[in-house]
User: Which sequence fits this backbone?
């Protein structure tokens, strides 16, 4: 049934965008998605960016206690939901500015954009989460329909395709934060696209929260089967980038999902990198967020 619905919806994105672009429709649809049993099934009709990851995240979010702690250190489910709602609102606003020809502005920091959402009740926040997601859906589709246009988001210039991949990455990561390493999370985190995005686009975003670090190894290679090597370099600022073909740095190996989690500043558990213990310790230390800076005010795309 749903396959036939998608076949009908796909050719009419322009019409769908116009309908969802109306605030009253967004608000009403968001209320249904948040409050009506089975409502999230209607997300397939909205054709949201990264639809599979979005539906998987929504199922995890709605099943969790809003006050439950997550694997994103110091954050509850409610706070992660606020983070994503605020991020969607920010994307929608920046795209609107770009397409209107108005002057661009810097991306607001996490505290400025997230605090109003964190202050909402759990029920109201869930509605706003869906409402902002629908706004972002419309914005990204409008950007997609404007070839050559892009927006600067958190210091990185992203077109519609890159924005969609970033949204997908965030949803996959934060679902893991809530439910951990089940089959859905491991499969999604192992996607080579998500790992490359973390090592390139996300690594270039600001603020950089990795702590300054010296040590025996200036650069270490993170290697996963079937994926490009990634170089992690310590110093005044830890940097992450795709490795050159002729590198001579020490190598540690890990599961693709574990590598993606490490790059995002997470502790993946038993699937930590394997290799010389000193080299492993070096790369884990370089990628561990600075505990003095990881707060609601400063966090690497928590």
Assistant:
């Amino acid at each position: 049934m749903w396959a036939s619905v998608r076949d009908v919806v796909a050719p009419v994105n322009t019409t769908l965008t116009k309908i969802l672009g109306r605030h009253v429709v967004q608000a009403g649809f968001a209320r249904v998605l948040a409050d009506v049993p089975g409502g999230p099934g209607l997300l397939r009709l909205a054709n949201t960016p990264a639809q599979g990851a979005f539906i998987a995240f929504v199922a995890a979010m709605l099943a969790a206690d809003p006050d439950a702690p997550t694997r994103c250190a110091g954050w509850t489910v409610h706070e992660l939901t606020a983070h994503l709602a605020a991020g969607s609102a920010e994307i929608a606003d920046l795209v609107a500015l770009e397409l209107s020809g108005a002057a661009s502005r810097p991306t607001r920091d996490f505290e400025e954009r997230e605090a109003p959402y964190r202050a909402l009740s759990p029920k109201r926040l869930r509605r706003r989460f869906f409402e902002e997601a629908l706004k972002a859906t419309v914005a990204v589709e409008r950007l997609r329909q404007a070839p050559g246009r892009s927006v600067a988001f958190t210091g990185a210039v992203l077109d519609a395709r890159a924005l969609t991949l970033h949204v997908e990455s965030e949803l996959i990561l934060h679902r893991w934060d809530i439910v951990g390493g089940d089959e859905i999370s491991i499969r999604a985190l192992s996607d080579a696209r998500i790992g490359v995005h973390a090592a390139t686009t996300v690594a270039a975003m600001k603020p950089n929260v990795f702590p300054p670090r010296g040590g025996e190894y200036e650069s270490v290679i993170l290697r996963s089967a079937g994926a490009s090597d990634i170089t992690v370099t310590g110093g005044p600022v830890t940097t992450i980038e795709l490795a050159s073909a002729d590198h001579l740095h020490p190598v540690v190996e890990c599961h693709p999902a574990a590598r993606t989690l490490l790059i995002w500043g997470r502790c993946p558990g038993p699937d930590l990198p394997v290799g010389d213990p000193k080299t492993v310790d070096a790369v884990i230390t370089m990628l561990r967020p600075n505990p003095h800076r990881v707060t609601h005010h400063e966090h690497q795309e928590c």
About this structure: The beta strands are 151-153, 156-158, 219-223, 230-233, 239-242, 251-253.
